[in-house]
Please model this.
Amino acid sequence: MGLCRVYFIIDNRYAKELIEKLINIIRSRFINIGIDKQFSSPVNVCSDKMRRFIEWGLKRGYCVIIIADTEGIKPDEIRERIINEHVKDLRINDPNRIKIILAHPCLEAWLTELLNLNVGNAINCKNVKDTIRHRLNMKDYDSYLLPNLIERHLRDRLEIGDVPSFLEKFVNAVRRCCGLT
Model:
């Protein structure tokens, strides 16, 4: 199989670095294929730009993976909104051409999963960040630290054979995009 083409639509500026790190990790452990990846500029799920980004990726032969925070809204509502407002009218024959991965309420929830912190009832990202700040004894946690923290803690988890749920979703989305399932 040749190169797999994936266009990631992201909703914040730190997601690109995080995805790059995740791709590097999964390429050696879960997916043995080259990946030609492109990234959108950060876009909100409510923005009309998202539809244009999806169309751009599809027209150029990419599979599209949307990675977005829910910002405290129920993930099913966000997924439905993305499908109804940006995907439904595109009449895509292959459902594997567009995948949606949601972080609830934000990407920091992935780090809390790695740290075994319970933030299941968190309704906003501030609560999640406060939990991280407290657990890691960090006075000044900021989102720019997230990609390196996830990479470090994810590698530790994978060493003991424990694959977190967010990584399973990510790997499955990339596999489906690349026609590996």
Q: What stands out?
A: The beta strands are 4-10, 35-39, 63-69, 98-103.
